[in-house]
Amino acid sequence: MTNExxxxxxxxxxxxxxxxxxxxxAEDEKKYPKKKVVLLMAYSGKGYxxxxxxxxxxxxRTIEDDLVAALIKSGCIPENHGDEMxxxxxxxxxxxxxxxxxxxxxxxxxxxxxxxxxxxxNENLPPQIKVLGLKRVTQGFNSKNNCxxxxxxxxxxxxxxxxxxxxxxxxxxxxxxxxxxxxxNRLFALYKGTHNFHNFTxxxxxxxxxxxRYITEMSCGEPFIRRNYEFAVITVRGQSFMLHQIRKMIGLxxxxxxxxxKEEVMERSWGHEKVDVPKAPGLxxxxxxxxxxxxxxxxxxxxxxxKLEWDREEEEIKAFKEAHIYPTIIETECEEGSMVSWMATLxxxxxxxxxxxxxxxxxxxxxxxxxD
Length: 372
Prior knowledge:
alpha+beta; Alpha-Beta Plaits; 2 domains
């Protein structure tokens, strides 16, 4: 047989394979038509470069890389949609940063509603990522644009609020005084309402309207002991957050409580002047839940669509946090001491100096309505 004949028969085999797979796809399409859904997801962000996919950057693995691979392997989306997520109308609710975890992330996309869909997706995901729920939504639904508010929590060792001369060699002995916790919460309450947060992200001019953000709630809960260390959880709810905004909001309060900065720096940080705001470590940050109040009001009672609330999944969300998110934060903190290392950098910041210049940090671009 000549080379040409060889090539010819190889091409025929390939063509036959293509026809077969095309036929299988057509069968799948008929049996499982594509529908617009939301997936409720939880994940531990350690070891991942954030949520959002960066096509062509395979060495920086993201949560979406593993999610898309699982959607393809389980047969929910065609393989050729993997590289073009627009084809499946994919949208995440919040673009969590490197190392940040989520207990209630929501993504919207078109999938084939195969049998036992949640189980099949989870079979193809690593244990630190899990799909916890699925609901049908309207055709035009977009998880980012339809989201009214986002709630984050931040778990930290309470030694973060110790006086600046406290011996950090003895972290396990530190206990937060009730008066200090009261002061912490009084400072966090100052963030409530609408303020100009241009100093709490990068590359944002004070005159940029998108720097104005609305915060509805921010407080620190009662301390608790884990592995002999005292921890506490801060909760913050707002309409939307800019890149690094929450970590900087927490960083500035820590600097004031420890005595590195005067309380008036908070008011000044919302003005037009440039203020040096420290950014707390990313380790303890968790996207807790996303809120769809307007959508629920409009479509939740129409008889066709469910409200995007996850009361039934609450126990599973809690179990995932206890199994995968909290232990990772606590172990990493106890072993690597990211908060204590960061605290050592606070004296380098100059909280008194101001300038009218806009921060010029080209590393982090923000999309205006994305999250920390």
